[in-house]
Amino acid sequence: MNAHPSARELAQYIDHTLLTPEATSAEVRILAEQARSLGTWSICVSPAMLPLRDVELGPVHLAVVCGFPSGKHTPSIKAAEAAESVALGADEIDMVINIGLLKEGDADALTAEIAAVRAAAPSPTLLKVIIESAVLTDEEIVTACRCAEQADADFVKTSTGFHKAGGASVHAVELMAATVGGRLGVKASGGIRDYATACAMIDAGATRLGVSATAAILAGAPQN
Fold first, then answer.
1. Other C-beta atoms within 10 Å of 77: how many?
2. 20 to 30 A Cα–Cα from 163, which one of 82, 95, 100, 141?
3. Average pLDDT, stretch 185-191?
4. Is 157 a known active-site residue?
5. What is the DSSP track for 120-189?
6. Active-site pick, 15, 94, 128, 154
7. Average pLDDT over residues 101-109
8. Is 15 a residue of the active site?
């Protein structure tokens, strides 16, 4: 990525996101229209919005969250939710880990949880693992990334964007990128609302961005 990516270049990093509880099918249709117009990589929606009806995605991928936003679901429920979403058209699954397992130091249980979702949504479905980095120590961030890699996930992701502790930070993205070493992607999500912040996350190592303020972010980018 160059220092000042164009709107077209930056759009391909973006999961154009609508995850509010009050979201409607009409709003998802608008989301898809915006994604096609702006050229984003995907849209990201809640599983209850599936199957998408009267929605034309074209080249835009479909990402769906799992265990969202708390992560306090059993592994079997998360696996079932992921499997159903894939059956209903999802190309990518963004799962929230059970952060309590990480806080308790139970890396084996955390790895098993991620592996259960991976088994339910096998490749070529992309699996992104949301670790809620703002509530973690650096050591916990590293452990979460290692568990995700061990469970054969494709990405680690900073945040749901719904936690009171906050969303993505440059430090967390740098640490996550250093830990996975290019073997997994890194998705920065939560609090990215302008072009400068988006660029900072990419410079830190993010290979995907989860944002809802997509139009405003891309408006700040060079338009060539």
1. 12
2. 82
3. 98
4. yes
5. HS-TTSEEEEE--GGGS-HHHHHHHHHHHHHTT-SEEE---S--TT-S--HHHHHHHHHHHTTSSEEEEE
6. 94
7. 98
8. no
Phi, psi (degrees; rounded to nearest 5) at 30: -65, -40
pLDDT of residue 127: 98
Closest CA to 88 of 40, 53, 130: 53
Query: Catalytic residue at 187?
Result: yes
Q: Considering the entire predicted model, what is its pTM?
A: 0.97
Are 17 and 212 in contact by the 8 Å Cβ rule? The answer is: yes
Amino acid type, 123: S
Rounded to whole angstroms, the Cα distance separating 129 from 180 reads: 12
| Of residues 210, 89, 206, the one with CA closest to residue 161 | 210
93 is written with which tokens? 């699954």
pLDDT value at position 3? 61
Contact 51, 25 (CB under 8 A): no
Angle at 173 between CA 187 and CA 123, to 5 degrees: 30
Residue entry with tokens 């159903």 = 84
Q: Which of 157, 164, 194, 203 is catalytic?
A: 157
DSSP code string of 101-123: HHHTT-HHHHHHHHHHHHHHS-T
**Under CATH, which number does the domain 7-219 receive?**
3.20.20.70
What tokens were used for 28?
Answer: 């998802």
